[in-house]
Structure formats: structure tokens, C-alpha cells
Amino acid sequence: MQLTSGFGKAACNTLGLQPGTWQSRYTQLYVGFAVSGLIHCGGELMVDPSLFGVSFPFYFYQAVAITFEDAVIELVRRSDVKVSQPLARLVGYTWAMLWLCISAPWLITWMLRIGVIDSDRMSVSVIDRLAPHLGVVAVRAATVIPTRLKGYR
Predict the structure, then answer these.
(1) Nearest Cα to 3, choosing from 31, 23, 25?
(2) How buried is 142 (Cβ within 10 angstroms: 0-12 exposed, 13-18 middle, 19+ buried)?
(3) How far is CA 101 from CA 41, 44, 136, 140, 153, in A?
(4) Among 148, 130, 140, which residue's Cα sits nearest to residue 51?
(5) What's the sign of the alpha-carbon dihedral 124, 129, 131, 137?
(6) Going by C-beta distance under 8 Å and a sequence separation of 6 or more, which residues neighbour residue 32?
(7) Which tens digits make up the pLDDT trace of 77-119?
(8) What is each CA distance from 137 to 20, 56, 108, 133, 141, in whole angstroms?
(9) Concatenated DSSP letters of the chain
(10) Reported confidence tier of residue 47, pLDDT bands at 50, 70, 90
(11) CA distance 116 to 3
(12) How far is CA 139 from the centre of its chain?
């Protein structure tokens, strides 16, 4: 995110947003992830120009997920419910893994469909060692989640 954070700060300066405000925070967040998504779209151009933009939602929706997470944290704070630090971390890590399982198929679906990703290329995978069934779940999800690919269905 460090590469793209300058774009978010520049957007805030252009819009006259004061540092430290929620407007500045979320402008930087969304601009940063949008720029990251556009940078990654360059790889799609190298594979096939008609694919430009298919992975953009994956990157942009990371900002949406962070906004959702911030909203939930704020609701819990306002409710005066006391949450222990270990429980808060457990919920946070669980949310991060859940979001990865939900959003990863958006990134890999097009690559699987056109053959950019071939699961037989690597004989050893750290992910397979840590979560042996995560890859199978992600691939299955990627094959059923609809995408907007033109001509690659």
C-alpha cells in the first residue's frame, strides 16, 4: 500500500481534506486501493487486452471490507460492550480469513478459466501445509462465482 498511499494523500490535498479526519482516511483508503487495482490491471493487459479490469473489483472491495470492519468496530465501541483484547484479535483474524476466502475467488477466477493458474505447477505449497483444504474451497468457489468475463465462460 505504500506505493499507492501517495496518490491518496495527493487526492486529499487536491480536495482540501484535513489530515486525521474520517474524510481524509477513507479518501486515502479508496484511492489507494483503486490505484493498486489499476496497477494490477496492467498484468491483465499483458495476458489479453480484453481482460483489462477483471481483477479490479478484488482490489477495490478490499477498501469496502475495511470500511465494513471499521463500522462494526465503531458500533461495538458505541454499544459499551466490553470485549477482551484476545477475543477482539480472534474475531479480527477470523474476519480476515473469512474475507480472504470470500474475495480471493474474484481474483483467481479469470486466471483459472483461461489457464494462467495451473495448480499442478507447484509441488509444494505453504498454504496447503497450513490449511490443506483452503485451496480446494477457493478453486470450487472460483468456478461457481459468476464473473463478467467477455468470451471466457
Answers:
(1) 31
(2) buried
(3) 21, 22, 11, 11, 22
(4) 148
(5) positive
(6) 1, 4, 5, 7, 8, 63
(7) 999 889 999 999 999 999 998 898 888 888 887 787 777 777 5
(8) 40, 22, 12, 6, 6
(9) -HHHHHHHHHHHHHHTPPTTSHHHHHHHHHHHHHHHHHHHHHHHHHH-GGGTTTTHHHHHHHHHHHHHHHHHHHHHHHTT----HHHHHHHHHHHHHHHHHHHHHHHHHHHHHHTS--TTS-S--HHHHHSTTHHHHHHHHHHHS----SS--
(10) confident
(11) 26
(12) 17
Tell me the one-letter amino acid at 133. Answer: H
Residues in the chain: 153
